[in-house]
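Justification of resources, computational component.

The compute hours requested in this renewal are based largely on the per-chain cost of generating structure records like the one below. Each record pairs the submitted sequence with a full structure-token output. That output is archived, and it is also reused by downstream analysis tasks.
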Amino acid sequence: MFAWIATLPSRVAAGARAYFAASGRLLRGGARLAGRGLRSRWIATPFRFGVRAFASTSRVAAVGGSLALAAFGVLWGGFERVPIATIGVQQSLWGGEGLVEHDFAPGLRRSTRGLSAWHFLDARTHFLRFGWESDGADLPVLDLRTKDGNEVKIGVTVPFRIKSGEGWMLVRDGLKSSYHALARTTTQSLLMQELAELSSTDFASTVTRQARCRDALPKLNALLAPYHLEAESIQVHQVLFWIEYEKKLQAKQLTKQQALEAEAATEVEEERRSHTLAEEIDAEEKRVRAEQDKAIETVVAEAQLELARIKSDAKSYDELVRARATAELERATAQGNLAITKAEALREELVQRIHESAGGRILLARSAAEKLRIRTVTLDSRDPRVPNPMDLDAMVALLVGKAR
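The structure output for this chain reads:
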């Protein structure tokens, strides 16, 4: 979208040129037609039509050119392009507002030409390279003396950049053209102070150098803060002593290496001895463990034998107790069944006695009478065996029976 808007002025200018070229061609054609019309009547009428067409086309071309010029003027005078990897700082030239307290990112920004001015700062990471030109450095190597008095040359690279959101402050403080030189002098001064605290042995240790650089970075950023700059790291990549001292340092390192090798050999011998002692301890441990395992197996076997005996005794006792309990159950069951049988027989005997008595017979008769369902009784009065219903005693005797 921004790319299309950026190319719009060139497009409008090309359209305006095309309109003006067409107008010029029509103008020249109209002039030729006018000349011919003056010489011939047959061309007079077409000449009039040509003039009208020319006038209409001229008006269209004039309107189009005016609109194109207006659009070009709006785009050219109403926007400002902030390039890629650049911080834009806007300054108002009228009204006393001064700098806009804001950093503008790359892109098209609204701005009226003649009323505003723009300052552009490099937003990329800058590098301060202290070292030798043959290695690509643009600043001289750092010459200093170590803590123990030896001269040393050091190659250092310090990447830094403008702090985010403080580009307008840098322009406000008038540091637009001098912040790089200020960063160089400040960084060089701090490095000369901090690295001079290291001894020759410290320079030979990568871990010590890196720790010193990490400790120095916050101090450097504190010094660069007034210039609205921020260092990202401090990287020491070259350390060079004088030739004689390099030889002494190499001899010292060789002696130290030999001492380390001797110490390592001593440790290996001690480790071998410790391995021998460990083997003896392992053998003694295995012997003791075997004796303990044998004793444990003996105890376990005796315990298993005793357990088997106890289980056998318990099984025999269980079988004996179960047999006694079963016999007692059968005896008690037989006695109970006999008692039940006697009770049933006594019950039947008592019921029979009750039924044989007069009251029992009456009860049976009553029960039979209650269950008797006679719908119709037809008696033949001519039969002498038929009782007389009017004879109640005979009917009772017939139905109930005679008393004994």
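The first helix runs from residue 2 to 39. The longest strand covers residues 151-162.
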